[in-house]
Design a protein that fits this description.
- The protein has 298 residues and is α/β, with parallel strands linked by helices.
- The protein has one domain: Alpha/Beta hydrolase fold, catalytic domain (Rossmann fold), CATH 3.40.50.1820.
- The model has no long low-confidence stretch (mean pLDDT 94).
Length: 298
């Protein structure tokens, strides 16, 4: 899809991911909350150590962290950044991969950030950078392996995860993620201008350029899986393909994969679940191995 050529009305439809599933996405948000509650209960039953870490003074600036029982080893960490067009959801809705990570011996964290319109996108990105820096500086006390800290995100969360991985974005003393799992993301933001999505964001061309991973230098970006569901709009598919291609041109080990039978909302429920493409890729990344995926040319 030529992202430059479509009309505002087409962009409104193409950047509304529920438009290809009948417009009803609330049942998926309810599934996130239900699966997250179940995963939280399972984690506690396993003896996991659960805590909320503050990375700032606002109530929204927190990280829900699950550590495997015992303190003998340094654990890999999966940090998940939720979507919702930077305007919906929370860490409490984003714990659904916690139990699967813990069963594999890995730590899991879900990131809270201030939602728009209470925060600008610039501020949200800075919060995510601060959260990653906070976790990275506490690896020793938390029992985390700094060489196996992986970031993942869905939809707007994939955008934020990608912003975390941009070379030069983090303080010099903070290592970037070892790998990234970017699911159904948006990496070039200018098409959102003029749509209803931008009403709460107030993005202009300069802000879009500053916050578009697709248009930033990518050399040094960590190994990445860029994936999306079979049942997505053409624009979301194109966003992922174009970004994976840009990563490949920059020398990143980038894998672009369309996952059959999944849509924009249910694809992320495979995160860390063994036996699924996304789940196996997640567990491989946490173990420091290459992504076990069939690569679609980007």
């Amino acid at each position: 899809m030529n992202l430059e050529a479509i009309s505002t009305a087409q962009r409104e439809r193409e950047y509304s991911p529920s438009s290809v599933i009948g417009g009803h996405y609330q049942p998926y948000l309810q599934a996130y909350a239900r699966r997250s509650a179940d995963a939280h209960a399972q984690a506690l039953a396993m003896g996991a150590r659960w805590q909320r870490l503050a990375y700032g003074s606002a109530p929204s600036q927190g990280i829900e962290l699950y550590l495997p029982p015992g303190r003998a080893a340094r654990h890999a960490l999966l940090l998940f950044v939720h979507g919702g067009y930077w305007q919906e959801l929370s860490a409490a809705d984003s714990r659904f991969a916690a139990a699967a990570c813990l069963r594999a011996g890995h730590a899991f964290a879900a990131l809270d950030y201030t939602l728009a319109p209470a925060a600008t996108l610039d501020a949200i990105v800075l919060e995510c950078l601060s959260a990653w820096a906070s976790l990275s500086r506490e690896t020793s006390s938390l029992g985390l392996d700094p060489q196996r800290m992986v970031v993942s995100g869905s939809s707007a969360g994939a955008h934020l995860a990608a912003m975390l991985c941009l070379p030069g974005g983090l303080p010099e003393d903070v290592p970037p993620p070892a790998a990234a799992l970017l699911v159904s993301g948006i990496y070039r933001l200018e098409p959102l201008i003029g749509t209803s999505i931008n009403q709460a964001l107030g993005l202009d061309g300069v802000q879009c350029l500053r916050n578009s991973p697709q248009q930033r230098p990518l050399k040094g970006f960590p190994p990445s899986l860029v994936c999306w569901g079979q049942q997505e709009t053409n624009a979301f598919k194109a966003q992922s393909l174009h970004f994976a291609g840009a990563l490949a041109l920059a020398g990143t080990a980038s894998h672009a994969v369309e996952i059959a039978g999944r849509n924009h909302f249910d694809i992320i429920l495979d995160l860390a679940e063994p036996g699924t493409l996304l789940g196996d890729a997640t567990l491989a990344a946490l173990s420091g191995r290459h992504f076990p995926v069939t690569v679609t040319p980007a």
